[in-house]
Amino acid sequence: xxxxxxxxxxxxxxxxxxxxxxxxxxxFDISCRDGVRVQDCLHPxxxxxxxSENTPPIGAVGPGPLKMQWPFVVSGPTSQxxxxxxxxxxIWGLGLxxxxxxxxxxxxxRDFADRTVDGASDPAFAVFAPILDLVRGANAPSDEIAERxxxxxxxxxxxxxxxxxxxxxxxxxxxxxKCRTVVELGExxxxxxxxxxRLCGRYFGFPPKLLxxxxxxLRSLAQFMLSPDHSWSKALDDQxxxxxxxxxxxxxxxxxxxxxxxxxxxxxxxxxxAQRMADQGAAPQxxxxxxxxxxPNAEQQGG
Length: 303
Known about the structure:
Elements: E1 5-12, E2 22-32, E3 38-42, E4 48-52, E5 58-61, E6 67-68, E7 72-75, E8 82-86, E9 89-96, H1 98-104, E10 116-118, H2 130-135, H3 142-154, H4 164-174, H5 182-189, H6 193-203, H7 208-226, H8 232-235, H9 243-254, H10 258-263, H11 269-279, E11 291-294, E12 301-302
Antiparallel strand pairs: 1-2, 1-11, 2-9, 3-8, 4-7, 4-9, 5-6, 5-8, 7-10, 11-12
Helix pairs in contact: 1-4, 7-11
């Protein structure tokens, strides 16, 4: 098995001005033996963009059949897992925060929720389409490509964004474990229930009640994945009344039971879990090595 595939994951920190809008820029470099496909799933997350230098992933949001994706694929905000398979490929990824959606995307997040689209042909993502040319055929070191992507994004940093401060305030409130109800969320923002519903649908993709449930679930999943003993009972967020309530949420958000998830191999997700959970506001920011290298049955090494 050890010779079936190997993975390099590199994380790059964007300029400080870009960080309210994007999560970390990262690069998957996966090498597979002929005929081998590496399979994994991503937990619910904010919107994300992936740019393939060669073979795009096969994937789907939720339990549907996997389909070949596009060289520039955008996944909208999700409330279900993204199941995917990779062959030998080199893929750049960039997560989009809700404030980034407000500034850079010309469309409502709810129209893209729980689906993937071709970013090169959808006008909502036109500002990002040139990034595909930056990574395809660049024939340059990855550090240099990352600098080019950062520089390109910085050229668009002054785009006007309606409701930007309100979106950031809502995002902060959603990440606050003390914010438990839609009423409390509206009170923190100082807006009516109807205005909150519109704001969340426009920039976050889902109604506020579902967003609070999703964040509660993600905090529990992060605690389970990042703790050494991997105990579901110890991982439950304080907002859960009991374990059965958590199991219902798990089935809703991951389309499987907690036991099924724990028994399923996660060859890619396990290596980037801390960063992804920090990006989703479910875990504290942690210092990761710039490069994470992994091959099956081998120890993780710092780059």
